[in-house]
Amino acid sequence: MTASLSTHVLDTGRGQPAADVRVELSRAGTPIASDTTDSDGRVSELARDLEPGAYTLVFHPPSPFFRRVELELQLEDGHYHVPLLVSPYSCASYRGS
Q1: pTM here?
Q2: Of 78, 77, 38, 43, whose CA–CA distance to 58 is shortest?
Q3: Residue 15's closest CA among 95, 94, 72, 88?
Q4: Positions of E strands within the chain
Q5: Do residues 23 and 32 lie in contact, with contact meaning Cβ atoms separated by under 8 Å?
Q6: If pLDDT is split at 50, 70 and 90, which confidence band does 70 have?
Q7: Distance between CA atoms of residues 81 and 97, nearest Å
Q8: Residue 70: CB atoms within 10 Å
Q9: pLDDT > 90? residue 54
Q10: Domains and CATH numbers, the chain
Q11: Got the DSSP string for 59-72?
């Protein structure tokens, strides 16, 4: 059993994808993968062949308030898509498809 992870970042304050956002994935404090969102705000394959378990996904969004958004994820078998919606003073995430 393995998992894979993709993401995208939407700047809801501007109504546009957020390009050039650094995204990092780690497990137990050890870096696993990192990338920067493309012009459409996406990282289509941040990581694959991940063992089941707990991971930390960190975004560095274009927000004057949220300088770092950190999510704790429990990954099992399958593909996970985890978007971040960010505006100057709010953020939200969900498990996408």
Answers
A1: 0.94
A2: 43
A3: 88
A4: 3-11, 16-17, 22-27, 30-36, 42-50, 53-60, 69-75, 78-81, 84-87, 90-93
A5: no
A6: very high
A7: 6
A8: 10
A9: yes
A10: 3-93 (2.60.40.180)
A11: EE-S-SS-S-EEEE
